[in-house]
Specification:
Helices cover 81% and strands 0% of the residues. It is an all-alpha fold. This is ECF transporter S component.
Length: 180
């Protein structure tokens, strides 16, 4: 199959899986389940797609989720997309630098989770909520609670799941087209 077709197909597949699994886990009413699944898929996209395609998945997922009625306030979408990009970039950088062994995968999980969490916390809790949105105290507290510690937990769980699944999936899925 042509590399461009493979790349587009994989990007579309990861985006569709991400949105479908967000919708499927939403009825559980548990941010930890949905967030962990989202982070798992973002990380797998980072590992199985080239950088521009993985970034596209990370950027598109919060907007598409919002269009489907499962996302947060519109004003938070750019910050969530940025957090997704940070997760993807850190995972790719570590795995490309250290290889695909357990140490690299574990290191990526332990470094990318706090990086994404810090990005979301600073962007949403410290900037968007008090300055951009000026939400009432009770709503601000509720939204802030979602974009602090739970983000760290879901990124760590998604990272651990990705580290466990990647060696198996790597044997089943051919190498991605080389770009970025």
């Amino acid at each position: 199959m042509d590399k461009a077709v493979t790349r587009i197909t994989r990007t579309a597949l990861f985006t569709a899986l991400l949105v479908a699994l967000q919708a499927a886990t939403l009825p559980f009413g548990n941010t930890l389940v949905t967030g962990s699944v989202v982070n798992l898929l973002l990380i797998l996209a980072a590992l199985f797609l080239d950088l521009p395609a993985a970034a596209a998945v990370g950027l598109l997922s919060p907007a598409v989720a919002k269009f489907l009625g499962i996302g947060p306030l519109w004003a938070l979408i750019p910050f969530i997309a940025l957090g997704n990009l940070v997760l993807i970039f850190v995972w790719r950088a570590i795995v490309h630098r250290w290889g695909q062994g357990w140490r690299a995968l574990g290191g990526a999980a332990l470094l990318a989770a706090p990086a994404k969490t810090a990005t979301l916390y600073l962007g949403i809790v410290q900037f968007a909520i008090p300055i951009l949105l000026k939400l009432p105290a009770q709503q601000a507290a509720a939204v802030s609670a979602l974009f602090s510690l739970p983000q760290l937990v879901t990124a760590l769980v998604g990272g651990a799941a990705a580290a466990a699944l990647f060696p198996v999936l790597r044997r089943a899925i051919p190498e991605p087209p080389s770009r970025g």
